[in-house]
Amino acid sequence: MARTKIDYGIDLGTTNSAISRMENGEPTIKKTDTLKDTMPSCVSFNKKRRARIGDGAYNALKSDKRRATKSWKKEDSNAFIEFKRTMGTDKKYPSSFMEKEFSSEELSAEVLKTLKSFVTDETINSIVITVPAKFTINQKDATSRAAVLAGFEHCELLQEPIAASMAYGLESKSKDGFWLVFDFGGGTFDAALLKVEEGIMKVIDTEGDNWLGGKNIDLAIVDEIIIPYLKENFTIDEILADVQKQEVLREAMKTYAEDVKIQLSFKDSEDIISTIGDLGEDDEGEELELDLTVTIEQLRKVIAPIYQKSIDICKQLLERNSIAGNSLDSLILVGGPTYSPILRKMLEEQITKPDTSSDPMTAVAKGAALFASTISVSEEIQEKTRDKTKIQIGLGYEATTVEEEEFVTVKILKDKTEGEIPDKVFAEIVRADKAWSSGKVEIEEMGEVIEVKLNAGKTNAFQVNVFNEKGDLLESEPKDFTIIQGSKIGSAPLGYYVGIAIKSRSSGKLVFRTVKGLEKNQSIPAIGVTTGYGLKTQKQIRPGIAEDYIRIPLYEAEEGAEGSNPIYNEHVFDAKISGEQLPALLPEGSDVEITINYIRDGKITLSAFFPYLDHTEEIIYDQEAGVQKEIDASWLESEIRKAKQTLNLIKQEGTFSDSETLDKLGNEFADIQKRFEQGKGDYDRKKEVLENLRRLLRKLDDIQDASEWPKTEEELKDVFYRLEKTNEDFGNDKTNAVVEQFKEQIPQVIKEKNVKVARELINNMRHLDYMLIDQGLGAQMEIALLQQFNEDFDSHDWSDSNKARMLINQGLQMAANNPSKQKLKPVVKELYKLLPDVKQPILSGDDEVLTD
Under CATH, domain 173-356 is a member of which superfamily? Predict the structure, then answer.
């Protein structure tokens, strides 16, 4: 049967997946090979080099993970799960039986192919696949690649909370108010706030965590219940000290934790008992064995903090939108972990009582099919699947509506039909419940408009019959269509702020700037432009020279990221434009305007316009460059240590008075440190730790800004007094006016105690001071700066004081022997680089990025 709408939806989950199809106007879950609604998102390979997917693979995984404790080699495993958590990364899953490594996309493709195989009565070419609302551009792109590997020619991505909303909205009696979708999946957490007006649903804000889900619960049970039991009953210190052995042990114990987690959603206690011979030996050669009982109260203590993180995310989301939890019309639960009575009670106590009318396990797949019934199959696929011996019909209609009557356009597509078409053709549209029919309507050459009646609050399936003048039924296609009445979903929103890294001319730092039009929650598709940003090149780009290039780093960022260090945000890729792509010389300081077109599903295009050349360069998103690399554990450990040291220094200085905030931040750093130590060999645990570390570092930056005010104020005044003196010696009417402007700005900055603005002002004044001395003294400027650095050495916060002292001594020696500007300038430049908070714009590096 040729379909004009996609009609198929897949919930590609971290731990479980499902496929749904529209049948007679209803989203219907297609049963798995074990006659279940969902199957484990698990892939295994056997010695005969055959793949198993689903329940069989999951049973093999349990055996593999437990058996690996006998050799303590994780390479012995040939079964894989939770690879969705590493989509868009370079993580590889080695299979000894297959003698190759698999990417997350390749394993996901195996799951998609298996889901597709559950449909036996037609070939599926098009699909809607759901993704978390907080999936990044790289992760969405990886999901699309998995669909291609699975043989789908047309793939549309849909945010999971939107899918769940569609499934819930169809049956819900509530057609107005605010809904909160609480989507706690196997590997990710999403919260989506929707505003519903007369059935029209619009996502107004989202929040979430790509590294918070059922896996975290499983590992918490492992780390807080099972491993302490093993430590008490066996000797495993050497195992835990070895990163690889520790990971093997945790993965093996996780298979027991998953079972107890599920069972304690429905009972008060559960036994964990291992089978003799399942596990390896401890440090002293004694066979490891599990025989313990876990109660619901024990579980509550362990997993409540994890659920609390998700609830805090929701509370933050509601507070940001000035909505009280008890004013929500619906709190919709999605995902297997939401069956937990512990979570449901916490939600009721802290937000509102959840609505349990929808099945948390199948809502997303059903919603995906509903959405798929509104999306047209691509023209290319329609052409390939047409049976042109049948009369081809063109149908036009609103697939979702809040009206109870809709117009459907019907046209005979003569150019698509190879069989004979009678002179007169009649069409009849019949609703599936047989309670309404249009009667036979003659279809003129230009087409006809037929008004159809809809059942309220339902999916309305219609059959299309075509007749000749004698009333004979003619073979035609498509034969049916669906209109959803009572709910209509608005456009999906951006889950992040999309922007670029630029160099701030005032501070000399690399900073994140949101591209106007690509703010979080902006409806997709969206176009962002940098018009008015005043972006310029920092160096000339010579035509035909590959080594001359402009770099435009693209990032996705969370709330409060504007002006932050770009490394605290999610890097998408670096767009590069070299001299080989430009038609002529592009001088230093040339204007550049960036346009980013965010189409949908994470698909983006980027272009740069150079007014000087009247040239626009299109930049293709480099999928390979967008793949995230594995995080080095030692580097991550060092970053955590440095962050904690910075926090301790702030506490010691005593310049930040909010001790409660500092203590809370200290506890969060301690939690990150603990989670890192528990799984430093776990690929996605490191990614999770980094994500949380970035969030805390942004907070730490804000605290540093607040605690730095006293010394910043002193520096602000000192720099101004020095500039006044320099201007007296070398200034003119123009510089006099600028200095006067600075003088007027300073009192307001001091009143507001705004460190960031003060820093910009300091650097602007230093820049003018530098220019005046440079014009007035030539090489004497560098000498003056060196002498100034020498006199004020202890007042500067050098990142490397030993190197700074060496450079100053070297520079002063050079000045005494041969005071050449050309030789002294590099020394001064290096000194400025050692000032972490104040960098002279014209002296610092990173000149391949744009500046404002």
Answer: ATPase, nucleotide binding domain (3.30.420.40)
